[in-house]
Amino acid sequence: MKKFLVVLLAILVVVAFAKVKITYFADNDPNGAEALLVRIFNAVHPDIQVEFIQVPWSTTDKHQMLVTRLGAKDPDPDVYLGDVIWPPEFAAAGWALKLDDYFPKSEREKYLPGVIDAVTYKGHIYAFPAFTDGGLLFYRKDLLEKYGYDHPPRTWDELVEMAQTILKGERAAGNKDLVGFVFQAAQYEGLVCDVLEYVWANGGEIIDGNGNIVSDDPKVVEAVKFVHDLIFKYKIAPESVLSFMEEDARQVFQQGKAIFMRNWPYAWSHANSPTSPVKGKVGIAPMPRGPHGSSGAATLGGWNIFVNAYSDHKKEAIEFAKWLTSEEAQLIRIIVRNNMPTRKDLYTNKVALSFNPDLEDFYKIMINAKPRPRTPIYPEVSDIMQRYFHAAVSGKMDPQKAIKEMTKELNELYEEYGLK
Length: 420
Ligand code: GLC
Fold this sequence. Notes:
CATH class of the largest domain: Alpha Beta
Order of helices and strands: HEHEHEHHHEEEEHHEHHHEHEEHHEHHHH
CATH topology of the largest domain: D-Maltodextrin-Binding Protein, domain 2
Bound molecules: alpha-D-glucopyranose
Strand content: 5-15%
Structural class: alpha/beta
Oligomer: single chain
Number of strands: 12
Number of domains: 2
Largest sheet: 6 strands, mixed
Radius of gyration: 23 Å
């Protein structure tokens, strides 16, 4: 009997002190914001232990990893940081937990409208918005000033002219490593984001708001050709951009080896870090417009916290997800990584402004950012765009032919899914 009581007591002690273990899939940016947020949560939650699992940088690779797991109804990861383009697909597949209960009107109103739309599918909310993104033009204020330019480029022509003039002058002065412009043109989702900005900035569209495929348009061809020409005709971008993702471009720019860069807000925190060679020399502006457009365009990016519908620990997972999207966590992301908040109030928060005095300029670009097509078959749509955009931009295929064939494939895909 005594032995039995001792065993029972031991079991009770173990149960009382047992931690619920949950896993969190996210990429760790070079500044470590997500890992830090996990550490803080673990420190104040003795009953929950979150294990941070670092996944690849590329959103396309992350997507592949999760689709394999969730498709097999894997309860792991309990929580994951997911791209703004995933909610329709993950909701339709039943992989993302429905979160309407946590978003009464009073809560929804605290967020930027675009980010709530992005996590909503058929009237229900499927993720907690963590941070938002929009494509920006980063430029070297010191170099533009040196060559007499008093504003960043507003048009494609200005971009080319400024880059060529500065390159000529700097190379003649012995700055042989300098390039004009770096961006993301590897064959992955980032290329789609970049090219869409040129398409929209030239008055074109691939799939319109009503789901019609409208890409067979000279304005679209002209945009894709321009991206190709940046490399091969105007020679302001190095051929290496054809395999660049965000971090590749960021590193070149940060080393002081590029005049212009297209990237997301996070790159600003790195460029202005204490050890950065370009600290204090970097300006941001909207991407320039094309000859047929009325304004530049930014692709809406961003990341949301999803709770796995198959998680064995939904209660704890939700608690953790709420922390990751709280005002405090978003403030930490601004400080550590310059991730743009999804909660409106943070754009006027004094602490946030002391870390990024240009927050208002970022805000203007974020609220005007344009979403990619919202459909559960977005991965297939993107795969088609990735292939043809890369073929055209790299010179493997004539842009007109590429856009014609891309349009044909998109139409076939929509027919296959009965969307036409
Ligand atoms: C950024 C954006 C994301 C986009 C990705 C492409 O992470 O936030 O929405 O899909 O870049 O590389």
